[in-house]
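Chain A, query sequence.
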Amino acid sequence: MTNVGREYAIALFEAAYEDGSLDAVREDLTEIRKLLKKEPDYISFLMNPGIPKEERLDSLSEAFEDNVEDLLYSFLAVMATNNHMNEFFTAAKEFEKMYEDYKKISFAVITSAVKLTDEEKRKIVTRLRKVTGKAISPIYKVDESIIGGITVTCDGKFFDGSVVRNLKNIKEVIS
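Chain A, predicted structure.
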């Protein structure tokens, strides 16, 4: 992570907080992030010193000015003007972290050997909410290799309640 991207993220977060547009900025930023991941050449275009800056900014204006929050468009224009669009993904990621901390949201990757029922999902999310004290945004995955049970990755921690892990523990005890 670079300090430049983080500084941009802090500036965007503070400005969005002050004008009450945090949710809207986050939503637009998420969409721009998806778009730029699909079109990485656009960032290269915005950074290309061989293309006049005015032409690059006109392109940015045409693409985003009327389609995203004014604050976010200004943010993109400043990044492009300062030739820092290569820091966009870092800034977007840092903004997302700040947003999640502010909103007390944790993302949890919940992996099971079979598809979980709605009731099982509800119980797991309820338990995670109690443990973390945060709202949980779950991402469910199925991985038959864990045989049974679940694994959870949340807030940088890994919880392994899989049958595979239990079998390894038993093997270590009897070895």
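The first helix runs from residue 3 to 18. The radius of gyration is 21 Å.
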